[in-house]
Amino acid sequence: MDPFEAGKLLLTAAAFDNRRPSKAANHAWAAALHDVPADPDAFAAVARYYTEPTQDGRLDGNRWIQPHHVRQIRRQIRDERIPDGAFTYPLPVGRETGAEFVQRRRQQIAAIADGRIEVEPILQLKGGPHPTVADALAGVGRIPGHVREALAEALPGRRARVEARARGGDDALAVPCTWCHAEAQKPCKRRRAARGDAPGTWFRRAAPHPGRVDAAAIAARPCSICGASVGLPCVWPDGRLYDGVHPVRRGAALPAA
Ligand SMILES: [Zn+2]
Ligand SMILES: [Zn+2]
User: Fold this and answer.
1) pLDDT per position as a tens digit, 146-173
2) Which phi-psi region, left, alpha or beta, contains residue 231 (left: φ > 0; alpha: ψ -120 to 50)?
3) CA distance 66 to 69
4) Ligand nearest 190 Cα, by number?
5) How far is the CA of 235 from the centre of ligand 1 (A)?
6) Looking at the CA of 177, which ligand is closest?
7) Measured in angstroms, how far is the CA atom of residue 132 from the centroid of ligand 2?
8) Backbone torsion region of residue 246, taken as left when φ is above 0, otherwise alpha when ψ lies between -120 and 50, otherwise beta
């Protein structure tokens, strides 16, 4: 503010404290408040200074406003317009850089502090969720029966695999299952028959199908009984395919052939 504006501000103060107007005071205040505009907030700061009670709760007749009071109370008035919580910001027209966003946000906050624009708080949802969401939430924390069953099967299936490895047996899950067509690494599955209109459901089996255990043995080692090499099935002496594998071929824990 300039000395003329400072003079008007001091006239406002004089209405409260009966000070004598003076050109020296106008210049002194203009110098002290050179970076503070003589806007309505500056005048409001003077009024607030003289209307707020002191810390001991009493209005006193000895107050004498100083330029630093105007500066501080004006900032306080402006800060009060800026909400504590989150508030929305206008969306940019087109793309903007991070620096442009910061610039625009600063302008918005300045405009809010000026009282030029209203704050739009970010609204909270009211009235509860949609019935379908409420229904879904009601089931949270409860495991449906078919999921529980599938989980119960998957877990022992994994345990069986670990146990097989621990005792030196073949990892049946290393190979696909020709019986249930489970892929390698996936547990064997079984299908519960369809009931009425409900389609059947696939469940993971706790144990691999026997044929898969044999397939893992075939993939793992040759057979010491029939002489089948790695990857080839066991055979009878006459060349017919053996049903499964010769028992000694299963599991490295058995005596080496
Ligand atoms: Zn299988
Ligand atoms: Zn064999």
Assistant:
1) 665 565 555 555 666 666 767 677 788 8
2) left
3) 5
4) 1
5) 22
6) 1
7) 59
8) beta
Amino acid, single-letter form, for residue 144: P
CA–CA gap between residue 186 and residue 189 (Å, rounded): 9
CB count within 10 Å of CB 181 equals: 10
Q: Ligand 1 centroid to 144 CA: how many Å?
A: 25
* Residue that has been written with the tokens 């910061």 in this structure: 102
3-class secondary structure, 165: helix
Distance CA 176, CA 211 (A): 10
CA of 189 to the centre of ligand 1 (A): 6
- 22-29: list long-range contacts, CB under 8 Å, 24+ apart: 27/3, 28/67, 29/1, 29/3, 29/67
pTM of the model: 0.43
**Residue 18 corresponds to which amino acid?**
N
Ion ligand 2: protein residues whose beta carbon lies under 5 Å: 223, 225-226, 234, 246
- The ligand with the least distance to the CA atom of 235 is 2
